[in-house]
UniProtKB/TrEMBL annotation:
This is ABC transporter ATP-binding protein. GO terms for molecular function: ATP binding. Keywords: ATP-binding, Coiled coil, Membrane, Nucleotide-binding, Transmembrane, Transmembrane helix. The keyword Nucleus does not apply. It is a multi-pass membrane protein. Residues 183-234 form a coiled coil. It comes from Okeanomitos corallinicola TIOX110. Residues 340-575 form the ABC transporter domain. The chain crosses the membrane at residues 21-38, 58-75, 132-155, 161-179, 245-266. It comes from the Bacteria. It is found in: Cell membrane. CDD domains: ABC_6TM_TmrB_like (cd18541). SUPFAM superfamilies: ABC transporter transmembrane region, P-loop containing nucleoside triphosphate hydrolases. Residues 22-304 form the ABC transmembrane type-1 domain.
């Protein structure tokens, strides 16, 4: 990103907090104003007292200087509170923005952007921007005021001494300039390595059982060591650059103090410089040493923040592909009948060579129970994901109640569909909250009814905490079948006119599956059900079966019709019967 655009972004982060930022900067200005005034007071005190010494005078100077120094200290505190506070606010808002933005993006985005990388951006990159907005802004403003206010006064006291003491500064700025590009690149490398490592940790923790089953601990350990080593190398390279630059800056800044002491004392002994002027100059040079020595840290914080701005903006710049069109049509759930039509429906995954859905045409009447069968990878889940627009389907191909799904308000479309995906994901909360996820205010009775329809009720009753049992990370871990039926109960709780089950009964035994299907047909007279399954005995009970092969519909019909035809369904059915006999 170009420097000007980065600055514009930085400005946009600060704009909502301009008042606190302005107050902080005014406070810094006052700090530096007092920082210039106090040495002048000391000079006048020294000059006065060296001619007419009196204890009263000393006391007066001491009280004034202590009061002004206290005011300066309070102003410095206030500047830190305001500016660091803005940093924290910006951090909060960025995290909020990232999360909200991610929620708007389609699942395909998360297939190509790993959770580890996104987590690292939402944490350590946001942290870097906080330091840029807080520490770097404060430090840069402070350095700027220190120079612009102090230098004119120094020059007015002794131009040649001031210029002599500043002789080292061009070298200092040259150094900073030479190092800044290198620092930015090395900082970016550290951030990348950190993301890589977060991703590996995240993936390994999710796949821990697999690692153990395949005895890959050693390989994973080595892979981690490699990433960790790369991070260490990147951090050390960066530290090396910083450790070269910072002491060089600090050393050069100290040289300017030495120049003042050396030349100043010579002038005092020659009688061409007053002691008060010498003291004031020395204090000023010392005052400049700190912000100058800090310049290295400030620049690092600034550049680190810039790299992170780029990394965050690359998330914000992704526009959600699936969103409401400007002329979106409302479809209140109570009016939905559940008629589904596909006209030449095609879908190709980004980067794939062949379509996952290839010219599908079908029509499903309201209340129909339709089974979708076919070999692995034939496009069944893709079809299930297309209807609630989890995929970016082109307009004019898929219709609900005759309305193009891409024209329907997304929330209305999704509200009309209850969906049980292939992986029965549960949140780490109570069973009750998992079941009523789609309707969080639903009462206990509804939750229990849904659990009964999904055949999970008796098992939940056996848990000590029943529906309050926490599942997942810090609670009971459910079996695959229990997870599936909890996910099924979640879909059953919503009174949606369309129900999509993507292989949602694969982990339950035949008897339970049949019972659930009976509940489904009994309780869903008016629901349109799309039912993906590998269990052909379940498919046989459907009103209609759609047979997919390599993304194409190869057969549509009732079970009794399809087994009469030569074709894929008859082949699958024969295989199924052999499996039934063997089991
Ligand atoms: N995110 C993706 N990116 C690219 N290709 C994908 C993606 N998801 C699925 N595919 C491909 O699309 C085709 C259809 O996949 P889909 O998951 O719809 O099959 P399926 O019939 O549901 O299979 P299964 O019975 O195993 O669930 C497959 O060739 C698959 O490799």
């Amino acid at each position: 990103m170009a420097q000007s655009r980065r600055l514009a972004k930085l400005g946009s982060y600060l704009r909502p907090h301009w008042q606190e930022t302005a107050l902080g900067i005014i406070a810094l200005l006052s700090v530096n104003g007092l920082g210039v005034y106090i040495p002048l007071l000391i000079r006048s005190g020294v000059d006065t007292l060296s001619t007419t010494f009196s204890l009263d005078q000393v006391l007066r100077y001491v009280i004034i200087i202590i009061s002004l120094s206290s005011a300066m200290w309070m102003m410095r505190m206030a500047s830190r509170i305001w500016i660091f506070g803005v940093g924290r606010q910006v951090e909060f808002e960025l995290k909020q923005r990232i999360f909200q933005h991610l929620l708007k993006l389609e699942p395909a985005y998360f297939a190509s952007n790993t959770p580890g990388d996104l987590i690292s951006r939402a944490t350590s990159d946001v942290e870097n921007v906080r330091r840029l907005v807080g520490f770097a802004v404060l430090s840069l403003a402070n350095t700027f005021f220190a120079y612009t206010l102090t230098l004119p006064v120094m020059l007015s006291i002794s131009a040649d001494l001031t210029l002599a003491s500043l002789a080292v500064y061009p070298f200092m700025f040259l150094l900073v300039h030479l190092f800044s590009n290198r620092l930015r690149q090395q900082q970016a490398a550290v951030q990348e390595q950190l993301s890589d490592m977060s991703q590996l940790i995240q993936e390994d923790i999710s796949g821990i059982s697999l690692i153990k089953i395949y005895a890959q601990e050693e390989n994973e350990r080595r892979a981690f060591q490699k990433k960790n080593q790369a991070l260490l190398t990147a951090n050390l390279t960066l530290a090396q650059t910083r450790n070269t630059l910072f002491p060089l800056i600090g050393g050069l800044a100290n040289i300017s103090s030495l120049i003042i002491i050396w030349l100043g004392t010579m002038r005092i002994s020659a009688g061409t410089l007053a002691v008060g002027d010498f003291l004031a100059l020395l204090i000023y040079v010392e005052r400049l040493v700190f912000p100058t020595a800090l310049l290295g840290f400030t620049i690092t914080a600034y550049q680190r923040g810039e790299v992170s701005i780029d990394r965050l903006e690359s998330i914000f710049s992704v526009t959600p592909k699936i969103q409401d069109p400007h002329d979106a049509i409302n479809l209140p759930i109570s009016t939905v009948k559940g008629e589904i039509t596909a006209k030449n429906l095609c879908y190709t995954y980004p980067g794939a060579n062949t379509p996952a859905l290839d010219n599908l045409n079908f029509s499903i009447s309201p209340g129909e129970v339709v089974a979708i069968v076919g070999a692995i990878g034939s496009g069944k889940s893709t079809l299930a994901n297309a209807l609630p627009r989890l995929l970016d389907i082109a307009p004019g191909q898929l219709f609900l109640d005759g309305l193009d799904i891409t024209k329907i308000v997304l929330n209305d479309l999704r509200g009309a569909i209850a969906y049980v995906p292939q992986d029965s994901f549960l949140f780490s909360t109570t069973i009750k909250n998992n079941i009523r996820y789609g309707d969080p205010v639903s009462d206990q009775e509804n939750v229990e009814t849904a659990a009964r329809l999904a055949q999970i009720e008796s098992e939940v009753d056996n848990f000590p905490q029943k529906y309050e049992t926490i599942v997942g990370e810090r609670g009971i871990t459910l079996s695959g079948g229990q997870r599936q039926r909890t996910a099924l109960a979640r879909a059953m709780l919503i009174d949606a006119p369309v129900l999509i089950l993507d292989d949602a009964l694969s982990s339950v035994d035949n008897q339970t599956a049949t019972q659930i299907l009976n509940n489904l047909s009994g309780g869903t007279q008016q629901k349109t059900v799309l039912f993906i399954t590998h269990q052909l005995s379940a498919a046989a009970t459907a009103d209609k079966i759609i047979v997919l092969n390599q993304g194409k519909i190869v057969q549509i019909g009732k079970h009794t019709e399809l087994i009469e035809q030569q074709g894929l369904y008859r082949k699958l059915w024969s295989q199924h019967q052999v499996e039934e006999l063997l089991s």
